[in-house]
Amino acid sequence: MRFRLTPRETSFYDMFAASADNIVTGSKLLMELLGADSAARAEISERMRAAEHAGDDATHAIFHQLNSSFITPFDREDIYSLASSLDDIMDFMEEAVDLVVLYQVEELPKGVEQQIEVLARAAELTAEAMPNLRTMTNLTEYWIEVNRLENQADQIHRKLLAHLFNGKYDAIEVLKLKQIVDVLEEAADAFEHVANTVETIAVKES
């Protein structure tokens, strides 16, 4: 660990942890969506929207702290990148739920539950990892596993696309469902961006 002669602003750690915990909330709402009817989905969408707003607030708080802090725990661009990537995850999850409701999707294609399970696992790992930024310990397994999960998400996404284009669905339904599964894939990519940023920070601080 690099030796420092100056004190560091430590509230960033708590804010990153809070942002990651909020993502876990979002992933649980995605899980709820799977078995919900149309009325329940509308209510889940409202709760997801509230969680997304809470995520925005957390991100803005980090940016405000960044702009007002002379000393930061690690490089400013990495703080910005980490906060932005965490925010992207919530944005994509909220978008997916909103699209399901707006498009009035009656039944999600088989395989979407696997996408969401991967996102839920990545959310748990990310929430567990954020407090470890304080000490930069026990992080290697985190970013390795999240990268593995993203590869798994890619495979699930490709199988879903093949399923959507097998002729079972009409063209309009394919367009709707493809947009939903694509947004879920973007959420998986965003988890990988977070893990890659954490790896970059850890390497710089070692």
UniProtKB/TrEMBL annotation:
Database matches in Pfam families: PhoU_div
InterPro entries, sorted: PhoU-like_sf, Put_Phosphate_transp_reg, UPF0111_domain
TM region(s), chain numbering: none
Similarity remark: Belongs to the UPF0111 family.
UniProt protein name: DUF47 domain-containing protein
Phylogenetic lineage: Bacteria, Bacillati, Actinomycetota, Actinomycetes, Kitasatosporales
